[in-house]
Amino acid sequence: MGRLGVGIIGTGMIGQVHADAARRSGALIIGVSGSSVDSAQAAVEAWASEGRAMQVEEMLSDPVVSVVHLCVPNHLHEAFATRVLEAGKHVVCEKPLSLDLAGARRMTELAGRSGLVAAVPFIYRYHPLVAEARSRTRTGNVGDVRLIHGSYLQDWLSDPAAHNWRVDAARGGASRAFADIGSHWCDVVEWVSGHRLTEVQAMTQTVPRDRIAAGTAQDPTRTEDIACVNFRTDKGAVGTVVVSQVSPGRKNRLWFEISGTESGISFDQEQPEGLWVGSRSGIQTVLRDPAFLSPEAAALPNLPPGHAQGYNDCFAAFVMDVYAAVAGRSEERMPTFSDGVRAAVITDAVLTSAQKNSWVDVQH
Ligand code: SOE
User: Fold this and answer.
1) Of ligand 1's atoms, which has the minimum distance to the CA of residue 123?
2) Considering only CA atoms, which residue is closest to atom 6 of ligand 1?
3) Which band of pLDDT confidence, cut at 50, 70 and 90, is reported for residue 220?
4) Per-residue pLDDT tens digits for 65-92
5) Which residue's CA is the closest to the ligand 1 atom numbered 10?
6) In the chain, which end has fewer C-beta atoms inside a 10 angstrom radius, N or C?
C-alpha cells in the first residue's frame, strides 16, 4: 500500500511539528495551506518540500489527501474541522477543539456521525515514563490514590509587551492558559490515574499589562494568565493544579505527583528521562530504559536509555497511532475529539467556578 497522503493547514511552529511527526510516521505531505499563498510557500520550502502550497478547497478535494492536520488559531478550528470531515477526510485538530464547550460538542457529534478518525494531540500521554506512571498506578503499585497535584508553568507571556492571538478571547477563546495547557495537565493525570475530576474550585488571574502588537494597538489582555484549581475526583481523591503562562524561567514545565497509600510517583516534562518513585522506605528514579519498564511503557517508541526523548518523539508516537487508526487498528491511548470535549467540560467548569467563586460540578 502506498504512503498515506496528508495535508497541513497552518504554517506556524505547530504546523512544522505536525509535519515532522507525519513524515516520521511514514506519511507523504501532499500540501500545506496557510493564511496566504506566500506563507504556505514559505512553509513548504522550510519544512514540507515534498509537498506544495495549496488552497484549502484544493486540499479537501484532492483524493490523495486522506488526513488533514489543523494547526490554525482556535477560532478557526470548528469551521475547518467541519469542512474536513464533510469532505470525507480524517482530521487531527489542535486543542482546544473550539472556542467553547458547545463548539467542541458540535465537532465531536459530527465526527461521530462521519465514522472518520478525529484526534486531538494530547501528546504528553506518549512519554514512555508517563506510560510507566500509568502502569504503576493502574496495577496497584501506588495503592489507593489519595492526592493528585502539580502545575503546568510557562513564561512566554510574562513579558508585559508579549502578544499572541491566544490572549484575545475572540480568537483564543474565553479561557487561555487553562484551555491551552491546563487541558494537557488534566488529560494526562486522568489518563495516568484513572480518576475523573468531578468538582472544581478555581481562581483565575490576568496580570495587568497593555500589549501593543507590532503595528497595531491591541485591547488589554482579557483572558487568564494564571489558574489555581482545587478538585475532587470520582474515586475519592483530592488535588490541586496551578497553571501559569507568566512564570519566568519555566518554559514548558508540566509536572504532576500522585500520592497513593503504598507509594508516590512524580513526572516532570522538562526532565522526562526519569520518573520519581517514593515510598516510606525510600526514593528512586526509574530511568527510561525499556529493559526495566512495564510492557505498556516499553511498547512505546524508545531510544536506548541516555538518548533523551522529548516533545517531538511524543508527537510522532501520537501521529503513528492516528495513522494506525486510519488503517483500522484501534489505539487505546489515542486522544480523540471526545477527549477534546472532556477538556472543554473541565475548562467550562473552571471558568464558571472562578466567576461564581464557588465549587462547581464537572459535567459528565
Ligand atoms: C503554548 O502554550 C503551547 O505550545 C501549547 O499550545 C501546547 O499545547 C503545549 O504542548 C506547549 O505550549
Assistant:
1) 10
2) 180
3) low
4) 999 999 999 999 999 999 999 999 999 9
5) 181
6) N
CATH code of the domain containing 33: 3.40.50.720
Which three cell numbers mark 335? Answer: 486522544
- Residues 6+ away with beta carbon under 8 Å from 126: 300, 313, 314, 315, 317, 318, 333
Which of 98, 123, 148 delimits the end of a domain?
A: 123
If one residue of 153, 181, 223, 254 were mutated to test the ligand 1 pocket, choosing by the most ligand atoms within 8 A of its CB, it would be 181
Is the CB–ligand 1 distance for residue 154 below 6 Å? yes
Whole-model pTM: value is: 0.96
> d(Cα 37, Cα 55) in Å, to the nearest integer?
8
- Domain assignment of residue 351, yes or no: yes
Nearest to 221 by CA among 154, 176, 155: 176
In this structure, the dihedral spanned by the alpha carbons of residues 239, 99, 57 and 2, taken in order and rounded to 10 degrees, is 0
Atom 11, ligand 1: which residue's CA is nearest?
Answer: 252
Give the distance from CA 134 to its chain's centroid: 17
Cα(96) to centroid(ligand 1), Å:
10
